[in-house]
Automatic annotation (TrEMBL):
UniProt keyword list: Membrane, Transmembrane, Transmembrane helix
Span of the signal peptide: none
Protein name: Glycosyltransferase RgtA/B/C/D-like domain-containing protein
Lineage: Bacteria, Pseudomonadati, Pseudomonadota, Alphaproteobacteria, Hyphomicrobiales
Superkingdom, taxonomy of origin: Bacteria
Region (Disordered): 674-699
Transmembrane parts of this sequence: 65-84, 90-111, 123-144, 195-218, 225-242, 327-346, 392-414, 434-456, 468-488, 494-514
Amino acid sequence: MTVVKGRASPGRQKAYQDGAYRHGYPGRVSIPRVDLWIAAFLGLRRQDSAVGDVADPSSLGMSPVFAFLCGCALVVAALAANASRLGEGWAVPTFYCAIAAIFLPAAARIIHPGASRLERLALIVIVTSALFVVRLIRAPVAFIDHDEFLHWATVNDILEARRLFLPNPLLPVSPLYPGLELITSALVSLSGLSVFAAGLIVLAAARMMLMLTLFLLFEKITGSARIASIACLIYMGSSTFLLFDVHYSYESLAIPMLAAVLLASESRRMERSDAAAWPRVVAAMVLIVALAATHHLTSYFCTALLCATAVMESLRQGASAMRRRQAILLASIAVIAPVAWSKIVGNPTGGYILPVLAGGLHEVAQLVSSSTSTRKLFVSDTGALAPAWQRYLTMAGVALICLGLLTGFLRSLVFNGQPRNASILWPPTRWRLWRSSLLVVLVLVTLAYPLSIIFRLTRSGWEIGNRIGSLSFLGVAIVVAVAVAAFWHGTSRGWLRATALAAAATMVLIAGVISSEGPRILVPAGYEVSADSSSIEPMGISAARWTREWLGGDQHFAADRINRLLLSTYGRQKVSTTLESGHDTGMAITAADLGPMERKLLIDSGIGFVMVDLRMTTGLPGVGVYFDGGAQDRNHMVPLQSSSLLKFNSEPDVDRSFDNGFMVIFDVGRLGKTRQPSVPGKRTGEPAQSLGRTDGDSR
């Protein structure tokens, strides 16, 4: 008997059967319809995009068991972090295994359709809390990441001067967007906590707010608690989620505020009456204004989302005139608020963002044209190659995300169609019959994810790609979640497929962490040259504190990338950066001789003291630069020479104020002028943050 698969009529099947026998084919003949298979794979029909949620009673289910498992995994993570400080080679792989142990069991339960809404929400809270504790285990007593010092300096200025907008040479734009710093300084003033402790409380609240808001937002958009919880899992796979977005930086607060704006906007759409939607509109407007004063890039992204949503809402069939006016009003406020705030504070973002964007676009153009070599994948600036397991996991994570986008992009659009339609993709008269305009916009946002991968292949554009990737994951999360629930898991009720999908989601999570942190996820046993968190250690902190105690605060220093962070925060000194003054004082420090050009550079910059760290002569910089990252700084192919750093010793008008064997402070205030010897400043006490460790030797 011959079987013909497809839409052929019975008569046509019989004719084909007779022809097959006449030509000598006695077996089964199967003709698959490739177009139907492709349609099912991409989700072009509504029956291929249906999601079968199971309505279980609301209970916590197995969430207490998973909370216990997360606690055990955190103990392993803590042991691994301590082993890393002792130089054990197994520490980093074990730390990644602990992260996977936190995520994998809960992900399998969330993907399985048998969990209730309350259990899903409880599991999201448990995993979110456990991953935040991972951040605490990595840096339990002090800020250690580069961007955290930039905003810590701004908080100290607010606490000491009791006013805003004081200049911050480390990041001039930071004081102009003080949302995070205002909340932290208020908590410090009310509670008496240190800046570090208050900052952790703010970050923990922001992280919990983000995940709960995303769950409610995705649930309102899709109408499914299962898809919403899976989308939260996928969002955790963003490269910035585990650590970067819980650094003490303004983006860590801005992303939760963006999610709250979108939730208020979507809640407005789902109100039964136009009048009942106005409280949500007002709440969204207040959040938009607050976001404009917190972070520039996130505010601009919010503007793009709300403007696109207003356009889609105007095109959507069935939307009332009042709902369209409300969407246009929110979009208008989203445009006005960041522009008005930028004008009030002096429009600083153009000079800050445009050079980075221009450099990234230039390198992308060179990459496409193959005119020059670009950033080598998995190779650090010091030439170290990442372990094989990290390389393979990162590539697998990107491949899994791309596969999820392939099977979820069109499926999400069909899923968003009106229930009476078989598809909103064909015929064209159904294109405007979607339920949620925001879901359409988020699906389109996923097109930025491949762009972020391209930017990550370049040196200058890596940071751009990292930021684009984190924002595009708002769309990636929900698109991949629809693909998982409707296609990859389907109607299965067993645990095997759910566990396999949870393992894939875990690979995405680990790949995101590796692409962001890699081997430097833990503090190493020894000091590393210009490697941000791996370069923050007691000796440098002790030297910075010495300057505050014996020289007084607000002295003008020239120093390398790491020590200027410590001088600005622990020492409360003024440091020279090219962002603020445009002068690259690192050229004067690394020059072979202190010639007329170097003297003029130091004098024009108003430098009073130069801090030299001889440990820079022991290796190349871990982040590619010793100082500000100018063209001269990136040309270093070998470590710096100690003779160049110590050239100030032979200058008669330069005094050596401090020397602990590795770090030397030179008083260059008499260069080009005659002045009286300076009087040691009054001791001003300890800074707001303390590592609680013994200081290094100083004299």
